[in-house]
Design a protein that fits this description.
- The protein is α/β, with parallel strands linked by helices.
- It has a domain of 171 residues: P-loop containing nucleotide triphosphate hydrolases (Rossmann fold, 3-Layer(aba) Sandwich), CATH 3.40.50.
- 35% of the residues lie in helices and 24% in strands.
- The strands form two sheets. A six-stranded mixed β-sheet has the order 6-7-8-3-9-10, sandwiched between helices. A four-stranded antiparallel β-sheet has the order 2-1-4-5, with helices on one face.
- Helix 6 links the parallel strand 7 and strand 8.
- It is globular.
- The relative contact order is 0.18.
């Protein structure tokens, strides 16, 4: 479904992503892991085109998307979250979610701010996520974890085929973590393809069908979680990072 070929992103002399190739198979949960600074978020940014790659190709369902603009990529069925929530504090949760609905064509520019069909869709998503009670809460009043759930809801407004989740478990408490794992699993079972960047190994091992490991901008391992966990190159990359940090 999603194929990344020889992707590079250089910042001056820094090769943040350096010839990275991997695929996220349709209907599966693929994890992109690696030590801090490995290039995971930069790869996500290049795939979703919030950042232009230096070189390389990104294909979605057999069509090249690396030259498209972010909203065109969303329209093709790829949506993503960010490490830091991008909600607007002075709007309600419902408004935040409805405003993520894609604008289709120039007629879309003339539509009312809260079209009833989009409000109904947003309410359905909030119900699916078990957070209907937050619909009319101001974005400013949400806890960190509630913002994560709202981001999740907003992501689903564009009817994606594949979602890219950037550290969905980052900083959340154990009970919310279980909730998030449940949502990801349920969405995947409903047919959604998932690519996930995450440091929480418990989540990775429990959820992923396949794990792609990056270090220093390159893919150093790729396979089922139980295989990657034992890979000496992976252990070395993590241990190296730990030693550097010590
Ligand atoms: N805008 C930028 N300008 C310069 N260097 C950058 C920029 N963005 C990222 N980098 C560098 O690129 C490298 C990869 O960063 P990136 O954030 O993609 O790693 P990561 O694997 O997502 O790390 P983490 O797990 O800590 O989020 C790092 O050395 C980082 O400092």
């Amino acid at each position: 479904m999603l194929t990344v070929t020889n992707l590079c992103k250089h910042f001056g002399g820094i090769r943040a992503v350096d010839g990275c190739s991997f695929t996220a198979e349709a209907g599966k949960i693929t994890a992109l892991i690696g030590p801090n600074g490995a290039g995971k978020t930069t790869a996500f940014n290049c795939i979703s085109r919030t950042m232009a790659p230096t070189s390389g190709e990104v294909w979605l369902d057999g069509g090249r998307i690396d030259h498209l603009r972010p909203h065109e990529i969303t329209a093709k069925g790829l949506s993503r979250t960010f490490q830091i929530s991008r909600n607007l504090a002075d709007m309600t949760v419902l408004e935040n979610i409805v405003c993520q609905a894609p604008i289709r064509g120039w007629r879309g520019l003339m539509k009312p701010a809260m079209p009833p069909e989009e409000v109904a869709k947003a309410e359905g998503i909030l119900e699916f996520l078990g957070i209907s009670r937050l619909a009319h809460e101001d974005g400013a009043n949400l806890s960190y974890g509630q913002k994560k759930l709202m981001d999740f809801a907003a992501l689903l407004m564009s009817d994606p085929k594949i979602i890219l989740l950037d550290e969905p478990a980052g900083g959340v408490n154990p009970s919310l973590l279980e909730e998030i794992i449940g949502h990801i699993r349920k969405l995947n079972e409903a047919g959604l393809t998932v690519l996930i960047v995450e440091h929480n190994m418990d989540l990775i091992m429990r959820l992923s069908h396949r794990v792609v490991v990056m270090a220093q901008g390159q893919v150093i391992a790729d396979g089922p979680p139980e295989m990657v966990r034992e890979d000496p190159a992976v252990l070395d990359a993590y241990l190296g990072g730990a030693l550097e940090a010590a």
